[in-house]
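Thread: quick sanity check before group meeting

JM: Hey all, I'm pulling together slides for Thursday and realized we never actually wrote out the predicted structure for the chain we discussed last week. Dropping the sequence here so it's in one place. If anyone has concerns about the input, flag it before I start.
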Amino acid sequence: MKPTTQRSLILALLALLMVATRVNHWAPIPDASWAVFFIGGFYLRQWTRWAFPALMALAVAVDYAVITGQGQSFWQHYCVSAAYWFLVPAYFAMWAGGLFVARNYSRSWRTLALTAVALVASTLVCQLLSQGSFYWLSASVAEKTVAGWAANYVQWLLPYMQTAATYVGIAAVAHAIVVAAVKPTTANADVAKPR
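JM (edit): ok, ran it. Output follows.
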């Protein structure tokens, strides 16, 4: 399979995963958005200039469709404030984590450890930007204190980290299966390399 075809397929799968899970943040199947951006950074690094904005636009479009589909104004919704736009750097933190892993990728256990560290670091920054901006900029939080912010940060960090780790773990297992199934040769060596 050609690298462009591989990237197109991965982008389509990531978009489908985000749409399927982002439509209801409280569904039994949790929102995969953070993991989508991390995985996107790993596989789509050569398409970062347009793939990241495309997935970001998709995330906003899904939010808009869900909110307006409930008969509410997008701009008046609880989750939409000046803080909403901090999702761009927050999600890029996840993307950057995937980019870091791709740049340091090798078929070894070292990459697995590197992925775990990058995922934790990316999630910490993503949570800091998304939760911190919501806490400090949104009118939805009445009393703002450093202690309240810290408690809220910690309260939501583990669930978001678990969700991202679950999806990235599934992607890592799928990646390992594909790499093991395809013997790297000159004709198909691109399958083993992140794009």
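AS: nice. The two ends are 13 Å apart (CA to CA). Residues 1 and 19 are 26 Å apart (CA to CA).
JM: adding both to the slides.
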